[in-house]
Amino acid sequence: MMQGNPRNLRKEQEWRQRIHAWQQSGLTARVYCARHGLSEPSFYSWRRELAKRDAASAAFVPVHVEGQTAPAATLEVVLEGGRTIRVPAGFNSATLKQLLAVLEAPPSC
Question: Most exposed residue of 27, 43, 54, 92, measured as fewest CB within 10 angstroms of its CB?
Fold first, then answer.
């Protein structure tokens, strides 16, 4: 469906809004699609595609350094959507990697 075709940003934004609304609804994907007249295969295809796009765009995140607001020994990581992680000095890097993997994973059904 989406492979090899140029991106349609309007359609991508519509599907992002639909998937966000579904996540907020508490409904199963099947029920949400039925209530909103959406094709389940299209829904799942777009959800998978958008997760891939988000993962690809998250590979490099711009960093902006502002005035110091936390103790010098603390790192602050700001993720897309405004989520912030504050990491104290002496943190366990394996634990941080696991946390970031969980936060960046596509939502489960």
Answer: 92
